[in-house]
Amino acid sequence: MTQALPLLGYRIGVTAARKVEEQVALLERRGATVEWAPALSLDPHHVDDASLRAATEEVLARPVDMFLATTGVGMKAWFAAVDAWGLTDRLVAALADAEILARGPKSVGALRRRGLRELWAPESERFEDVLEHLRGRSLSGLRIVVQEHGQSLSMVAHALRRQGADVTVVTVYRVDPAEDLDPLFRLVDLVADRQLDAVTFTSAPAVAALMEAAGPTGRREELVAAFQADVVAACVGPVTAAAFELWGVPTIHPERNRLGAMVKQLESELPSRSAGVSLEVAGHTLLLHGDEVLLDGAEVKLSPAPFALLQALLVNPGHVVSRRELLAALPSGTAGSEHAVEMAVARLRAAIGTRLVQTVVKRGYRLAVSP
């Protein structure tokens, strides 16, 4: 008997632009059908040297009391730029005298490679928890520098200013959307029409890009509703998952912020949510999930007429379904005679085996389900 692949029969959207080959391979090796729609540019971390240098000079112009580091890639890009400008020693000295809060281990690593030590970092890796750490604390008169992480942190700066802080935001890079947005628009339709079982996200900007793409299509509410009910939003970690909170979308993410861990989680999550029908029929395992049919773990391709007939037989497994009822279940455009039913039965038997569909003389057909 063929070993069933854990994601066989599931259709999964992938929004990543980078390392996409690795993710698609992980999913397809487990049997999934993948719909790829990059949400971001292949080189999304666009650094504006002139703007970044001006922001760096502003940081260096006055003492820094507190520094908030948000991403490892952002810190690396900033240090690479100041290395080229010959300003590294000055920036490190300015930040070394400040109270440093880091969002997660990647930003911590980037800081420590430059001899800088964080005073505190949340276990959650959520920037919201950094802000919670500061909430209720008097920030009056403190100069806070915030390293932006590809999306605007203007609301964060505003919240800190309301607590009395003097805030400088350093925009290291901006995240650019995908050059070709047609695949992303198609993904919006697939989710809204509930044609996917899950969509994977490896960055918060990818979530924002999908939601932004849903705006012009007029399907944002349908997209959100689908994610809330039927389509799993699978995130690589808590930071990415937090981007869905604004929309009230439930997410799943692994404890370890790793691509393989996210795929592994889908292996157990999707079957547990499956609305598919699994039956033992004539000594075989027959699974119907969405528009996928699996027999003993192997995919079976059915044309519309035999697929519709199988669905009708599965409504009440083991019970006889008359030819008239089966004829009514066939797709529109099928010839309206019992001969069409016989042809559909013949094609279904050819695909899944003659013993699985039994003829009940003068009554109709039934699946050979054990009592």
Task: Describe the 3D structure.
Helix 7 (154-162) links the parallel strand 6 (143-150) and strand 7. Helix 2 packs across helix 3 (72-85) and helix 8 packs across helix 9. The chain has helices at 20-29, 49-61, 72-85, 88-96, 105-112, 127-134, 154-162, 182-192, 204-217, 220-229, 238-242, 259-273, 304-315, 323-329, 338-352, and strands spanning 11-14, 33-36, 40-46, 66-69, 99-102, 143-150, 166-177, 198-201, 232-235, 251-252, 277-281, 284-289, 292-295, 298-300, 357-360, 364-367. The protein folds into 3 domains: 11-39 and 178-273, Rossmann fold; 44-176, Rossmann fold (3-Layer(aba) Sandwich); 277-367, Orthogonal Bundle (Arc Repressor Mutant, subunit A). The chain is 43% helix and 21% strand. By secondary structure, it is an alpha/beta fold. The two termini are 23 Å apart. The mean pLDDT is 89. It has 15 helices and 16 strands.
